[in-house]
């Protein structure tokens, strides 16, 4: 089963659910459910619980989006959403140390994301696709053209 949102961010978002992705989603949902159960007791003495649980759900759905991604651009969007929404966990205590570490976390996430995005642009320019199902053939074709051979799976 596939789902497409065309012309979003100039590329579109492409999601796919197949057996492999379903297994990963089930494992992720199980692990998120367990962490949710244990976090209730762990955060009993903290304030801002609604904020924590809201961002926990956003991060969980972003994680599922990563697993359901059918192309690398969609994976990038959900991975960045996952990274940015989990910042709240890093800064949850709102102490000076937590906020400083949170700023470092955001800096690493943003810089890493921009480098990854640049790589995706270069890959798309070189092979003409970011769809995971088409990448092997596209890269093989480009690699084969450069080396004088064409590889097929």
Question: What attributes characterize this protein structure?
Answer:
single chain, 153 residues, mainly alpha, two-stranded antiparallel sheet, 6 helices
Instruction: Tell me the Rg in angstroms.
Output: 19 Å
Note the overall shape: globular
Overall number of strands: 2
- The ordered string of helix (H) and strand (E) elements is EEHHHHHH
Instruction: Note poorly predicted spans.
Output: none
Query: How can the largest sheet be summarized?
Result: 2 strands, antiparallel
Please report the distance between the alpha carbons of the first and last residues: 24 Å
| Fraction of helical residues | over 70%
Helical run tally: 6
Average pLDDT metric: 89
> Proportion of β residues?
5-15%
Strand neighbour order, sheet with most strands = 1-2
Structural class: mainly alpha
